[in-house]
Write a structure and sequence with these properties.
- The protein has 352 residues and is mainly α.
- Helices cover 60% and strands 0% of the residues.
- It contains 16 helices and no strands.
- The radius of gyration is 28 Å and the shape is flat.
- This is Nucleolar protein 11-like isoform X1.
- GO terms for molecular function: RNA binding.
Length: 352
């Protein structure tokens, strides 16, 4: 616990301008003491390992943990790490040492502190942006960082328009808050689809069974699929979806209609949203923009096509239920012989 406490104190000294004369305490880390200097770290819901850590005879931590601690202190201090090359070198050392010398909760905690520190360094508009992209991607992919522990970082990646970092966060962070998830969808629609429209890129492929063409580009569809597969609360997501402009809502609704009309009954991989997920997103989007969709002449055709697709899906599954009943009756009428296992010795009488 001494190691985690020292890391928090170091991060506070490096990121905040408060006084460092007063030593940190466990009570301040747990939020029982209100302090403006701890406002950034106090909202980080991380899982700490309360088990006793191995120590030396004099009560100090092991030399390996002290080495990782010094590396993290250097990474969190902007006065020591001023260039991207220096940060990349120190980050590589941190990832290698922490993988062997730290347990997973401690490693995840330190990684979230590093990401939050990068976010704080970019808040000062008077200074040049500090964005070590390759190192950030390695931290996201290898350290199992929770999005709830560094929500501002994902927002910073969106502000930086770093598509690769945003995609990596969506792929490796499983607990993205609903309000940030909607901002990710907006980013994909504005950045990727807007760029595709500006360059007159092909709008994707059409279904082999229908003439319905994908309303977004292939790159945008891949990114939207990953975001749509993220877990969300179907009640709270409605308020966040109201942040969409009407045009953005139409783009997303058209794509969801495309998925509903053309997707197979069984999805082969986890990167494509299932029928239930598509239905939940359509329902939430309709609830969020109900009035605009009803009053807009542009959306009437889309709503009519959407209603028709829903009716076709309903009829399809109704027929499947009928087939299921018929198959069950056949199964009950046909007696399938059950092989009886005999012991090591048995007498069987055969009648001809």
């Amino acid at each position: 616990m001494r190691f985690v406490s020292q890391v928090f104190q170091t991060d506070i000294r490096a990121s905040m301008s408060s006084s460092t004369d007063q030593p940190g305490s466990l009570a301040s880390l747990l939020g029982t003491e209100s302090s403006a200097a701890l406002s950034t770290q106090s909202r980080i819901p991380v899982t700490l390992d309360w088990t006793e850590k191995p120590k030396t005879k004099d009560g100090s931590t092991t030399p390996h943990k002290d080495e990782v601690e010094s590396i993290v202190e250097e990474m969190l201090d902007p006065t020591k790490v001023k260039t991207l090359l220096h940060f990349s070198r120190v980050c590589k050392a941190f990832l290698e040492k922490s993988q062997t010398d730290l347990d997973l909760p401690s490693r995840t905690l330190l990684a979230s502190l590093i990401l939050n520190n990068i976010t704080d360094r970019n808040k000062d508009e008077t200074k040049k942006h500090f964005w070590p992209k390759k190192s950030l991607l390695r931290i996201i992919e290898e350290c199992n960082v929770a999005a709830s522990s560094c929500p501002s970082f994902l927002l910073s990646a969106i502000e930086m328009r770093d598509l690769e970092v945003v995609k990596s966060c969506v792929e490796h962070m499983q607990d993205i808050p609903d309000n940030i998830l909607t901002k990710v969808l907006q980013f994909f629609i504005r950045h990727i689809q807007g760029t595709s429209n500006g360059s007159q890129e092909s709008t994707g492929t059409s279904s082999p069974e229908t003439s319905t063409a994908c309303p977004v580009s292939t790159a945008c569809a891949q990114c939207l699929n990953k975001a749509l597969c993220c877990p969300f609360n179907d009640t709270f997501i409605v308020d966040s979806l109201r942040q969409f402009s009407f045009d953005e809502a139409l783009v997303l609704l058209r794509y969801l209609h495309f998925l509903l009309s053309t997707m197979p009954a069984s999805v082969q991989d986890d990167s494509t949203p299932t029928l239930n997920i598509v239905a939940d997103w359509i329902s939430a989007l309709l609830d969020a923009h109900f009035t605009q969709l009803i009053l807009s002449p542009e959306a009437r055709v889309l709503l009519a096509e959407l209603a028709q697709s829903v009716q076709m899906q309903e009829s399809f599954y109704t027929e499947l239920e009928a087939v299921k009943t018929i198959l069950q009756s056949f199964k009950d009428s046909v007696l399938v012989p059950v092989k009886q296992t005999s012991g090591s010795y048995s007498i069987e009488v055969l009648t001809i």
